[in-house]
Amino acid sequence: MEFKDIIEELGLDTTLPVFVIKDYKISRMYETASGNVKIETFISPYYNKVNYLYAEWSDHKDHPDIFNRIKNLSEYIIATEEANIAEVGWTAIYSVDPRNIESEARRKILMKFMVDTRKDIAFGWKEDFLKPQHKTVLCGFPVGVKIDFGFTDESRDMGKIDRVSFSKRFGLGDLKPDGFVYGRYDENLKLQPI
Questions:
Q1: Backbone dihedral region of 30: left (phi > 0), alpha (psi from -120 to 50 degrees) or beta?
Q2: Could you write out the three-class secondary structure of the chain?
Q3: CA separation for the pair 6, 97 (Å, rounded)
Q4: pLDDT at 127
Q5: Considering Cα of 64, then 61, then 184, then 15, what sign does the dihedral take?
Q6: What whole-number distance in Å separates Cα of residue 22 and Cα of residue 105?
Q7: Could you tell me which of 53, 45, 66, 43 has the C-alpha nearest to residue 11?
Q8: pTM of the full structure
Q9: Residues 35-73: pLDDT tens digits?
Q10: Quick one: 104 exposed, middle or buried, by C-beta within 10 A (0-12, 13-18, 19+)?
């Protein structure tokens, strides 16, 4: 099914422009006695929610039930509200095997990273359109391993649970069937779970 047909059937604006997105990144180095951790935070802004839906359609247009996939996503992001949307995430690059960094040092890095990322999401991005506004939706795809359990499927499952819990500290909601978590800024610019 073509994207324009899906958008029309969902009653969304088919005249909104679709732009190529550009990721914005902030890199920080955290040092420990046993190794360093570089964390790269990224934000991918979408100028409107139809843009975000288009990106999903483009990635999965051959999916046998693409209409319902886009329909469900449009409900998660409250596509009928005019507002921008952004995806946020991060990757960690370790100078040593992360299991060689003491858990207390990893915990301290996590806490510092949380403070830094909260500021980034609220104020730190260079472009004005990236700053949250009332009704802006923020989403993320929580994925990663539970380091102390190695790099196994079970560890990834446990890591996903941890990362969903971590995301909730920022104001994002429960894990949706599409694997993402979503939040929406209220009138006080506080992120509320969707």
A1: beta
A2: CCHHHHHHHCCCCCCCCCCCCCCEEEEEEEECCCCEEEEEEEEEEECCHHHHHHHHHHHHCCCCCHHHHHHHHHHHCCCCCCCCEEEEEEEEEECCCHHHCCHHHHHHHHHHHHHHHHHHHHHHCCCHHHCCCCCCEEEECCCCCCHHHCCCHHHHHHHHHHHHHHHHCCCCCCCCCCCCEEEEECCCCCEEEC
A3: 46
A4: 61
A5: negative
A6: 33
A7: 53
A8: 0.84
A9: 999 999 888 888 889 989 999 999 999 999 999 999 999
A10: exposed
Place of tokens 């403070």: 115
**pLDDT single digits (tens) 9-18:** 999 988 887 7
> Both ends of the chain: CA-CA distance in Å?
28
